[in-house]
Write a structure and sequence with these properties.
alpha+beta; seven-stranded mixed beta sheet; three-stranded antiparallel beta sheet; 25% strand
């Protein structure tokens, strides 16, 4: 199964001949690509058109990869999506230790346009992590979504650690058209309640919306600390690392 973003890029490339796209530079040289912080609005233009979820979520920090002044891809970081834990501590304390658990951030959104260089995503993530590290973050968490045909190829290419699938069941709200209306975290922040039964009651009288179970996602983590810090975090993480999943054709 192809990833959703690859399918979208292939479709975009056939809609109009590439020479007619004014945003496409004449030369796309990955060695000359520039990665820099960008605005929410700049990131939003690409995320809404190419990204699987079709929303910006709770992203706070945004970076883009540019070829000759043209943005070819974006990556967005923000709040953790899943903050629940049975232990009562920070949800990632069992993975990195309580000392470092509060110094993490989530890579929540990312997408490249149809004409981008094949290595744009990996270079964009690698360079953006350097910016994130300078802000004293010690680790980053990201997810791959099986529903979008993802196995985390770009995270594997940039040497993240794979932690397997999550176990918590989530329910998000979708339009009948299939587009996401609101994920469970944003729904709780707005209405201060959650759970399948309560949310279904809220949906009564709203025929354009429905509740959809979110399948567990693959979880990846990247350590950004110095040598000593990474060694200390790895003491918690080492027994949780799994082999990378592979795509089944």
């Amino acid at each position: 199964m192809k990833a959703h973003q690859r399918i979208i890029r292939e479709q975009k490339a056939t809609e109009i001949p590439l020479l007619l796209f004014p945003e496409k530079p004449d030369i796309i040289d990955i060695k000359k690509a520039i990665i820099r912080p960008i605005s929410y609005k700049t990131a939003e233009k690409i995320i809404l058109e190419y990204e699987w979820l079709g929303t910006m979520g709770t992203t706070q920090k945004h970076f883009g990869i540019y070829f000759d002044g043209h943005c070819a891809g974006v990556v967005c970081y923000g709040y953790f999506q899943a903050m629940n834990t049975n232990s009562g501590n920070h949800p990632y304390a069992p993975y990195v230790g309580e000392q470092y658990s509060k110094f993490g951030i989530q890579l929540s959104r990312g997408a490249c346009v149809h004409w981008s260089h094949p290595h744009s995503a990996s270079k964009l993530i690698g360079k953006s992590l350097q910016y994130i590290k300078k802000e004293d973050y010690k680790y980053v968490v990201a997810f791959s979504d099986p529903e979008a045909g993802e196995i985390g190829t770009v995270y594997q290419a940039t040497n993240w650690h794979y932690l397997g699938f999550g176990k918590t069941i989530h329910y998000d709200i979708y339009y009948k058209s299939g587009q996401l209306y609101m994920n469970d975290r944003d729904f709780y922040k707005k209405y201060r309640f959650c759970g399948k039964n309560k949310t279904e009651n809220w949906l009564e009288g709203k025929p354009d919306l429905y509740l959809k179970k979110r399948e567990p996602k693959g979880r990846y983590i990247k350590l950004l600390g110095n040598k000593k810090e990474n060694k200390e975090m790895m003491q918690y993480l080492k027994d949780k690392i799994l082999s990378y999943p592979k795509r089944v054709d």
